[in-house]
Amino acid sequence: MLEVAEVRSGYGRLEILQGVSLSVAPGTIVGVIGPNGAGKSTLLKTIFGYLAPYAGRITFENRSLVGLRPDQMLKLGAGFVAQAGGLFAEMTVHENLLLGGYDLASRRELAESVDAAYERFPRLRERRRQPAGSLSGGEQRALALARALVTRPRLLLLDEPSAALAPRFIDEVYAAIEALNRSGLALLIVEQNVEMILSVAHRVFVLDLGTNAFDGAPAELRQTDRIRRLYLGESRTESYAG
Amino acid sequence: MESLLEFLIQGIVLGGLYALFAVGLTLIFGVLNVINVAHGEFFAVGGYILFCALVLLHLPAVLGVIASGLGAFLLGLAVYPLLIAPLNRRLGRRPAGSLYLVLTLGLSTFMQSSLLAIGGGDYRQVPPLVRGILEIGPTGVSYQRVLVLVVATILLAALFAFLRWHRQGLAVRAVSQNPEAAQAMGIHLARIFSLTLALGVALAGVGGALMAPLFNVYPAVGFPLTIKAFAITILGGMGNLAGALLASLIIGVAESMVVIVVPSQWQNGVAFLVMITVLLLRPQGLLGRAAVR
């Protein structure tokens, strides 16, 4: 579905990604983990068109994404949820959802999609007239997810959905992510919360200093000593013992 | 008492004109982060188009005012793709506000020179769009001034309704709050920037047309208004549309009423005295700096 091959990207002359490759199959959850500065968010921004890659190939359903702007990605069936949700804090919940369907051609389709979002996240309907910035952290993430679903994407890119959330909200957000995946949506999730992403992902990529450090199933990753030490916080002794 | 009422009415009319001008300037700043020094030249363009429509082509006044707004709108549509976007592309990012200030100062001077070259430096007289005096108790106000207030009120109400309920209006507000997230909604930033600039200067163009019969028309007619609009924008809170509206009325009424207590030579200084005071006491303005809500 999504293929990223040998992508180099960054900010001006600062090259962050130095030949990263990954792929997302239809209907799967793919996690990307790695230390701060590894290039995880840069990878998502490059895939979604915020950054133009210096080199490499990015295709979505066999169509090249290189050179496309973020607003064009939506038309292809991909959605993006920024770190902390990227909400329009001073606008109401309902206005945020309407903007999620900015690209939809008909008003009827928009109304139906927004209604479906309220069905999926009933608490948002109660808060529909509140400014998005006044919602709790968990509700804000729910709104960000609901808004990204209004155009019914086939692939959703999520940048650290658990960042700065209390544990009970993290569970709620991941329950929603799993439910979305069960309905057929493919997700590419960049995450700092390694345990959480390993519990839901079908495949995991580890980035380190802008390059691929691991690619495989979560169970394989748990068996890799170096990765366990670096990303699961296990001690050297335990790792050697294991 | 009569003169107090008269000055109050004139102040409200003046406030309506300032609002038409300053709300457009504030809208542009709130969305593009550009302080448009050339805003007054679009006011002048509006006046010149009305002059051409009424005096040279003998068209009906309504058509003349619509043409003024439309002309300024179309010129405004060209500013983003021809000036601002190339600058952003060249730098690889959105530059500091000061660079936009210099850019639009250049545009202002170029537009003034162009108007001078095409229309000459003479004061062009435009006949009133409506004639007569509206009697209000013991005093009266010309229908031309009433027209300024009525049209300003209608246009500003339409702008606020557009921003509140229209799909593109929501997009304008979204871009002002979070341009990156707006792109993820499928919003084409360049289109929204162009639309916002065009809408903002179209308001100035209509203002120029409505005021042409009162001010006459010459190339630099809008420049003093631009400077005053900066004071209004700061008073209201940079980028705050409701603040700009409120500040316009305050400055309009204050300027009009101040001549009751001080010589009229002080009239033009009032706005700037208020601006300096506000900057010193409340730098964020009356309603605070905010995105276009």
Description of the molecule:
The complex is a heterodimer of chains A (about 240) and B (about 290). Chain A has about 240 residues and is of the alpha/beta class. Helices cover about 40% and strands about 25% of the residues of chain A. Chain A has a six-stranded mixed β-sheet, with helices on both faces. In chain A, helix 3 runs parallel beside helix 6 and helix 6 packs parallel to helix 7. Chain A is globular. Chain A starts with a strand and ends with a helix. The C terminus of chain A is likely disordered. The longest helix of chain B is centred in the first third of the chain and has 31 residues. With about 290 residues, chain B is mainly alpha-helical. Chain B has a domain of about 200 residues. Chain B is globular and about 60 Å long. Chain B is built from eleven helices and two strands. Helix content of chain B is about 75%, strand content about 5%. The termini of chain B are far apart. A two-stranded antiparallel ribbon of chain B has the order 1-2. In chain B, helix 1 packs parallel to helix 5, helix 2 runs antiparallel to helix 3 and helix 2 runs parallel beside helix 4. Classes of the chains: A alpha/beta (about 240), B mainly alpha (about 290). Chains A and B meet through helix 2, strand 6 and helix 3 of A and helix 6 and helix 7 of B.
Task: Summarize it.
The complex is a heterodimer of chains A (242) and B (293). Chain A is α/β, with parallel strands linked by helices. Chain A has helices at 40-47, 70-76, 93-100, 107-120, 122-126, 137-149, 167-182, 194-200, 218-222, 225-231, 236-241, and strands spanning 2-11, 14-24, 29-33, 55-60, 63-64, 78-81, 155-159, 186-190, 203-208, 211-216.
